[in-house]
Each structure stands twice: as C-alpha cells, then as structure tokens.
C-alpha cells in the first residue's frame, strides 16, 4: 500500500467496486482520466510545476506530493471506468468521438504567481466537475470514491492558496 503524502487525507479510500456496468458513468470516468480537466492533466501540470520550482524546495515538494495523490486518483478513475464498461485509455468522448489526452491541455507558465494561480484554478475546476458528477451518478461506490477524491482536491486548493499568499508577495 502506498504511503500517503502530507497532501493526501489520512481518510482511507473506499474500495473501488462499481455496482454494475453503466456506459454513461463510464464516460464520465473517462473524462476524469483523459479530458482537458482530468487527473492526467493534473499529473502533468503538477509534475511540470515541480520541475520548474525546483529552486524553491517547499513549493517543489508540494507539487510532488500533489502529483503523487493525483496519480492515485487517476488509478481509481481508471479502475471505475473499466468496471463500468469502458477501456480506461487516456481519452474522453467529444460527442460520439473519442479524443486522446494531449499535453496541449496544459499551460506552462514560468512565473511563480501565474503558476500557482493556474494550479489553484485547475484544482477548483476539478472540484466543481466532481461535485456535479456526485449529484447525478446513482452508483453508491462511484459516489463514495468521488467524494473521497474531493477531500484531497480541497486540501490541494488550501495548500496551494497558502503558497500563493506566501510567495506572490515577493
């Protein structure tokens, strides 16, 4: 079992066990995996941010820890997509077409305050998306996993906001 980072809630993740196949829910999980606002986008963004902030050890460590947590979320959504009836590739539906995830979804700022602002906004957009999904999905296990992931995402916003307040004044 993976050791949680300081930016992962100590609350355990629920078992990943969707009730029954449901293509509508599976498509939502695919979007959580490979859409523009997805866990793959979060992993890529925070990995990049970790690299370009390596001169600021505190910030770089936060991005590394968030990246690790987002990879756990990516795994959960991938398992749910598979259980719900979809191939968990890094893609999403646009209408009836499958569109692969692309690194073009990511903004690559170098200026620290812009980098932190974009990271905060990305986390807030994920929160909004997952809250909406938790309202219309009826599978209790899928909802439980989304709600658990929301705990981490909110924690990320809090930590990134604190960093923004501390470092943007420089």
From TrEMBL:
Domain Rubrerythrin diiron-binding: start-end pairs: 45-164
Leader sequence residues: none
NAD among keywords: no
Domain of life: Bacteria
Keyword ATP-binding listed: no
SUPFAM superfamilies given in the database record: Ferritin-like
Keywords, alphabetical: Coiled coil
GO molecular function: metal ion binding; oxidoreductase activity
Coiled coil spans: 113-170
Alphabetical list of InterPro entries matching this protein: Ferritin-like, Ferritin-like_SF, Rr_diiron-bd_dom
Name of the featured protein: Manganese catalase family protein
Species annotation: Guopingia tenuis
Phylogenetic lineage: Bacteria, Bacillati, Bacillota, Clostridia, Christensenellales
């Amino acid at each position: 079992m993976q050791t949680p980072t300081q930016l992962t809630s100590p609350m355990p993740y629920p078992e990943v066990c969707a009730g029954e196949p449901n293509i509508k829910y599976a498509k939502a999980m695919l979007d959580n995996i490979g859409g523009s606002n997805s866990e793959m986008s979060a992993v890529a963004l925070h990995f990049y941010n970790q690299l370009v902030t390596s001169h600021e050890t505190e910030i770089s460590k936060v991005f590394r820890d968030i990246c690790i947590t987002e990879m756990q979320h990516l795994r959960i959504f991938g398992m749910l997509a598979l259980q719900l009836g979809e191939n968990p590739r890094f893609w999403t539906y646009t209408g009836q077409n499958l569109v692969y995830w692309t690194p073009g979804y990511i903004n690559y700022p170098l200026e620290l305050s812009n980098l932190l602002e974009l990271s905060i906004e990305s986390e807030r957009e994920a929160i909004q998306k997952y809250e909406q999904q938790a309202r219309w999905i009826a599978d209790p296990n899928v909802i439980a996993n989304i709600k658990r992931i929301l705990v981490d995402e909110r924690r990320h916003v809090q930590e990134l906001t604190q960093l923004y307040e501390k470092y943007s004044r420089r």
